[in-house]
Structure formats: C-alpha cells, structure tokens
Amino acid sequence: EANMGSIASLTLAVTINGNAEEGVGGRNSTRLWGLVVGHHTSVRCVPFPLRYASEFLMQAFGLQLNMELQLASQLSEKRVLKTQTLLCDMLLRDSPTGIVTQSPSIMDLVKCDGAALYHQGRYYPLGVTPTEAQIKDIVQWLLTFHGDSTGLSTDSLADAGYPEAATLGDEVCGMAVAYITSRDFLFWFRSQTAKEIKWGGAKHHPQDKDDIFKIQPRSSFKAFLEVVKSRSLPWENAEMDAIHSLQLILRDSIRDGDGGNSKAVVEAEVRAMELHEMDELSSVAREMIRLIETATAPIFAVGVDGLINGWNAKVAELTELSIEEAMGKSLVRDVVHKESEEIAGKLLFHALKG
C-alpha cells in the first residue's frame, strides 16, 4: 500500500445470500460478492460510530443487491420456462427437426450465438455455427473422449481439450452439447467475449523480477489493464437445467416414434440400441432424478395413479410442504385447494392421456 501512496485503509465486505444469483434465496449461508476499499494518504483512525455506520450501509447495499440478483434470476427463469414449454409443444406436434425449423427454436432457449441439431447424420445449423465437416469432427471427439457422459458444457473449447479449437476462430468459443442418442446431438455455441480486467498492480512477466535481497511490496502498483480472450460467457445453472430438460424430452420423443409416423425417428437405430436399452433407461432415470432435485425451477412428478412421485426443493420451498410429506400423496385430493380440485383433476386427466 505504501507504494500506492496509501498510509491508511478501510475495507468493507459486500455479502449476499449463498444462492442469490441462482434465485434460491436461502438465508442460511452468505458469500462474498465484493469489497469496498477506502484509502487515505495520511495516518487516520476511523471512529467506531463511523465504522459501524459504514458497515450498516454495506449491509443495506447487500440486501438491495440480493433482491436485484434474485429478480434477474427469476425473470430469466420465467423466460426459459416459457420458451421450453413452446419447444415441448413442438416436439409433441412435429418431428424433432421442428425445434430448429420453426420459431421459437432452440436458439431461443438459452442465450447463444448459434445452435444446431445433428440428427440421423444430417446437420441443421442456426446462427453462428461450425461447418458440417467441423461438427462431425466435434462429434467424433465427443464420442472418443466424453462418450460416457450425457453432455458437455465449456466456455472454452481449447481449455476443454478439443485439438481443433483454433480452426473454429473467435466466433465459436464456448459450447454446450446434449446427447440424445449415440448419433443425435443438440448443440449451442457462444462466440468469444473479450473481457477487460483492471488490476491494481501490473502483472509480472517471467523476465520481470523484484529485488530478491529486500523484503518489500511489489515493484509496480500502476493500474494494469488485461484483456482476456478465447473465452465465452459461462453457461448458467438455469440454462443447463433447461438444456437437460429438453434433452430428456427429446429422448422420449425419439423412443416413442415409429417408422410410419411423421413424429418418428428411425426405428432401426432404436433396434440397434436394444442391447443397451436397460443401461440407457437407467442413465436417463438417474439424470431425471438429479435434474428434479437440483433444478432452480419448481418441478414435481405425478404417476398414472395421481400420486406424487417427484417433488424438488424449489416446490418444497414454495408450498412449504417437504419432500417427505409430499411423496405418495394424491396431488388433487391432498395438495390442491378444495376449490381447485375439479379443475386440477381435469387437467391431470388430460395430461395423463397425452
């Protein structure tokens, strides 16, 4: 600090709820969001009342910031759920290619610069995407190095280990991919975002050295601007939840299809995968359970008997009905308000009939 001309300093922490940016508003944990640092060029002792008032001001700022972050997250969540509902409706009415050939498309599901469906060996690109030859190379890389997973998300293909990342240029930097089958994939792409970071002191280069014989602060504290490239905006948890949900729905759409229906996907591939069907179904079931439990959106599941068999933490928070209390209960008779039983019963009946 002496090198910066500062003799005294006061540091105040700005804290928010642990999951504020994800819209979960739990108050049991807090995390550091930022710091407010004041410097003075002479010796100065800040009186306790002033320090206390400053801390109170930071708490008030943190509360306001917390509400702003939660509101932004909830608005984003509503937008994603609305788009997801429309895409699900497309899958019920049309072939899987409808999610790229109609509007809204998969590009509207999450913020991206391009998206694509690779289905039955055919490539359906939207926006800024790799070429067909490049996407085939990416698919081969995914199957070779990430074949056991259900998808991949990264803000830098280079950092993820894709050897041909440099050939894609700055327009294709980040990628999220969902596996539908071993031959069908959903892709979302993001372009490079140059991010400026202002440092309080210049970063050292390997050739720069301080005086090794003296214990002192760093030799330079001049403002330093670093521009970080070759990286896209990160994929948010709510966006990945939406992608995974669409992935599961599209898998079901493919399985339920047959060769004589316009909604079908090639039945021959399903027969070729029959030996792996049990493992695949088990994997999907585990993924579905994980998604329901961790999603920031309220999700519950009801069986054909009308009994609740899935109830995630968000629903429990909104209804104040714990998972243990909800499981096994009748949605219509035990959970829905009496005045809404008839409407809820009709909606559930039609939903179960498809």
Account of the 3D structure:
With 354 residues, the protein is an alpha+beta fold. The protein has four domains: 2-72, Beta-Lactamase (2-Layer Sandwich), CATH 3.30.450; 94-192 and 233-296, 2-Layer Sandwich (Beta-Lactamase); 195-228, no CATH class; 298-354. It has ten helices and eleven strands. The chain has helices at residues 48-93, 98-101, 132-145, 237-256, 267-272, 277-294, 313-319, 323-326, 331-335, 341-353, and strands at 8-17, 30-40, 114-119, 122-127, 151-154, 174-179, 185-190, 195-199, 224-228, 300-302, 308-311. The strands form four sheets. It has a five-stranded antiparallel sheet, with helices on both faces. It has a two-stranded antiparallel sheet with strand order 1-2. Strands 8-9 form a two-stranded antiparallel sheet. Strand 6 and strand 7 (185-190) form a beta hairpin. Helix 1 (48-93) packs parallel to helix 4 (237-256). It is flat, with a radius of gyration of 26 Å. It starts with 7 loop residues before the first strand and ends with a helix. Residues 258-273 have low confidence and may be disordered.
Question: Which features does this protein show?
Answer:
alpha+beta, 10 helices, two-stranded antiparallel ribbon, 354 residues, Beta-Lactamase, flat
Cα distance spanning the termini: 68 Å
Q: Tell me the radius of gyration.
A: 26 Å
Describe the biggest sheet? 5 strands, antiparallel
CATH topology of the largest domain: Beta-Lactamase
Q: Characterize the overall form.
A: flat
CATH class term of the largest domain? Alpha Beta
Mean pLDDT: 78
**What is the CATH architecture assignment of the largest domain?**
2-Layer Sandwich
Class inferred from helices and paired strands = alpha+beta
Low-pLDDT segments:
258-273
Total individual domains: 4
The H-and-E topology, N to C, reads as EEHHEEHEEEEEHHHEEHHHH
Strand coverage percent: 15-25%
In DSSP terms (H or I, runs of 4 or more residues), the helix count works out at 10
Task: Please count the beta strands (DSSP E, at least 2 residues each).
Answer: 11
Strand neighbour order, sheet with most strands:
4-3-7-6-5
Instruction: Report the helical percentage.
Output: 25-40%
